[in-house]
Amino acid sequence: MKSASFLQAAALLLLAACSNDTPQTGDEPIGEPTTVTTTGLEGHMIRGPVQPVCISDQPCEEPFAANFHVKRDGASIAEFSSGGDGYFLVFLEPGDYEIVPAAEAPLADPEQQAQPVSVGKTGLTRVEFSFDTGIR
Predict the structure, then answer these.
(1) Which of 45, 93, 99, 107 has its CA 20 to 30 A from that of 124?
(2) In a domain, 5, yes or no
(3) What phi and psi, each to the nearest 5 degrees, are found at residue 96?
(4) Distance (Å, rounded) from C-alpha 119 to C-alpha 87?
(5) What's the start-to-end Cα distance of the chain, in Å?
(6) How many angstroms from the chain centroid is the CA of residue 46?
(7) pLDDT digits (tens, 9 = 90+) for 107-132
(8) What is the pLDDT of residues 63-110, one digit of tens each?
(9) Which of 127, 134, 132 is CA-nearest to residue 44?
(10) Which domain holds residue 46?
């Protein structure tokens, strides 16, 4: 029995010594390198009118929360949401896009209210989008 245990231990040591694996430190990259996009859009979503008759001293537009699609050449390439204050941030490569409210957005015919926009070559492009509620 002792010789069998000794042979097993010797075999394990031999396999470990022949291994090409170096001890890992946890800092090694996993998989393919990734590119981080640092350009995109930042801004606010506004909808209006929010009442049938606009009265001075009362806002006729308001920020709103909704889901949006980012389209390029007619294809949806990303989605994002605006918060209750209308603020949004979406990272996109530089180029030309359309921002399209999702079908459930509280707007008149939201999918027909696509807004064209261009993302600059550096940093965040700041924009404000205004959409029609259909209230008259």
Answers:
(1) 107
(2) no
(3) -100, 135
(4) 17
(5) 93
(6) 20
(7) 999 999 999 999 999 999 999 999 99
(8) 999 999 999 999 999 999 999 999 999 999 999 999 999 999 999 999
(9) 127
(10) 40-132
